[in-house]
Amino acid sequence: MNAEEDLRAQLAAVREELAAVRSQLDALTTARGLTMAGQVRCPGCGGRKLLHATKVLDRAHGGPKTLAVAREGAFFERSVGEFQVYICQGCGLVEWYVPDLSGLVADGETVRELDGTAPDPGGPYR
Ligand SMILES: [Zn+2]
Q: Domain boundaries in the chain?
């Protein structure tokens, strides 16, 4: 094999490796469910043992309540947007969820809606 053939072979190998890396990158950037809940894997340490807390308690007048985004109702107060968490047993990383969005309203003040599909308004503040 002469020097030119050797370079061509090396170039072909690099192109092949680049294509493989590109496809892995595409798979990573388009993948959904890269969450602790979706993969049962911690993105921080790679740990596979998690805890799922279906309620998160909050201190409040009259005893502990479930931590939520909001409360509504004057006499019969009701939590809206209760939190659940996934906790990595290896490193303690926490992922928060609000599985039930019913009653949760984006009022523009305490709850703002962000729409990643909308055209970029151009500013750094959303
Ligand atoms: Zn972890």
A: 1-31, 33-111
User: Checking phi first, is residue 125 left (phi over 0); if not, alpha (psi -120 to 50) or beta?
Assistant: beta
The pTM of the full predicted model, rounded to 2 decimals, is 0.65
The strand pair at 57-58 and 94-97 is best described as unpaired
- As residues whose CB is below 5 A from the ion ligand 1, the structure lists 42, 44-45, 47, 88, 90-91, 93
What is the per-residue pLDDT across 23-53, written as a single tens digit (0 to 9) for each? 988 877 776 668 899 899 999 999 999 999 9
Dump pLDDT digits (tens) for 60-113: 777 778 899 988 887 777 889 999 999 999 999 999 999 999 999 899 998 999
Measure 45 CA to ligand 1 centroid, in angstroms.
4
Q: Give CA–CA dist 43/77, Å, rounded.
A: 37
For residue 7, how far is its CA from the centre of ligand 1 (angstroms)?
44
Give the DSSP letter of residue 105: -
Distance 55 CA to ligand 1 centre (A): 20
- How many angstroms is it from 50 CA to the middle of ligand 1? 8
